[in-house]
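Researcher: Here's a chain I'd like modeled. Treat it as a single chain, no partners, no ligands.
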Amino acid sequence: MDTAKTANAKMVTKLLFRLLPVQILLAAVGAVNGIVSSFFASNFVGTDAMSAVGLYSPLNMLVSSIGAILVGGSVILCGKYMGQNRQDRMHNVFSLNLVLTFLIAAVFTVLFLIMGLFGLTGFFTKDEAVKPLFNSYLIGQSIGILPMMLGSSFSAFLSLENKGKRSLIASIIYIAVNILLNFVFVKQLRMETFGLALASALGMWVFMLIQAQFYVSGKSHLRFSAKDLVWKESREIFHIGLPGALSNIYQTARGLIVNGLLGSFVGSAGISAFAAANNLLGIVWAIPVGMLAVSRMMISVSVGEEDRRTLTDIMRVMFRRFIPLMCAVSAAIILAAVPLTRIFFRDPSEPVYMMTVWGLRILPLCMPLSIIYMHFNCYGEASGKHGLVHLLSALDGVVCVAGFTALLIRPIGMNSVYIANVLNGAVTTLVIVGYAWLRNKRFPKNMEQLMVIPESFGAAENDRMDMSVESNEEVVRIAEQVQKFCLERGVDERRAYLAGLSMEEMAGNIVDHGFTKDDKRHCVDVRVVHKGDDVILRIKDDCVPFDPGERQQLAEGEDITKNIGIRMVFKIASEVKYQNILGMNVLTIRI
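Model: Modeled as a single isolated chain. Structure tokens:
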């Protein structure tokens, strides 16, 4: 049993790190936009343009928040349906997401255009030098809202279909287009802040269209259909996605409050420094955001499968691998604070210079703690712990950062906002532990207690058996264990024998054929569950995609001596389902 746990943990770790690079790069797309805009603003337009970029940040967060509701809710719901193998519901969620995203993006586009064209931005700044630059920036950004929101949705769904490489290619092309257009619009044509925003917007159209092509090619598993939409499911999307996205919505308010405090107590240099530090660190923030993206997909599928062990393994990987990695990255940023500041500001005598340096020395400290918050927030969304999610979202989004900044800005000035972010990470971590302590009525001593996983979740310990297979010798031994487990649970001898035989045939087929397709080391994760009157076998592997159902259909007209094992399993089982989830083969057999 311990071997099975270790094998599953290794498989989870391997899958998370295989998906991670693509998700980090996808998360970095917006950060690259911020860095490129900040570089061209500070070097070719001026400090006032940098303030305009900083003032837009809360609005960008608002748009991203609405998109996060749709993406988060849709991906979690799709993941659950994927875990339950409910194909029609998956297609409906996909179609609903695209329709709702289009409609909401259109509203934001019109709103930002009106605000920019008619100068309705007095709420954001009273500075007469900054306001026209901000208006022009807002107009340019409005052009890119639709592709930004649709591109985020396509990226999430492509990951579910194990087509993350397309998003990776789209990201790289977007970065190149964004830099090229900024050079042309800002440096050559002197289009100032409108050029900054337009370059980003047109690059985002390229990013979105490259991903969309997969869904019009007819090769995708998820299909768009506006004909038979089940609109009531949109409520479920918002219901699931809202708690997690509330943090972003709160951050919109936080951005407005912090910008107001900086403008009143520090001045426009403070807003520029904060924008520069945030935009540069946005590239680094892509790492924890990418970590969350891969974890979210696996958490949602695990909740759908009621797979308690994989859920806890995901969190263990977060603590043991993700956080140490983030600590190392944060230390590197702190050590490189001065040279990184020189990307934007080169005169040490200017106040904005040291304000930015201190931002790059203090803000990275909150990043490892943020990983804990984001993962528990995501788990709370997927598992229905809405009270915890709302509390964490409010604390992280606005209460802690805005509150600590307001308390500290008079005595320590600019550094107050940086220190507030670190204190925010400490508070949310303590709340997570306190919540588990309160719910369990004792201090949490293991991962299941920290996650407050209900006893009713999944099969009880004595109703399931978990094993791993790495060789043909283990296949025979595990088949005997399956048979013995069934007999001990009161299953009749015939079905117990058939369960063991089915496991031996299918696991053996994976070892004989899947393990030999490449030079990588593989294992088969096996689970047996006795539920009601059913024996359910779940076989998961990380080999090349292989659907035994398709093989069984192809074998119908072949020599009856070929594929005899697969034929037999399909005849003796009451149900056989296959899925390829996040690049893993998942076969479920019901006896």
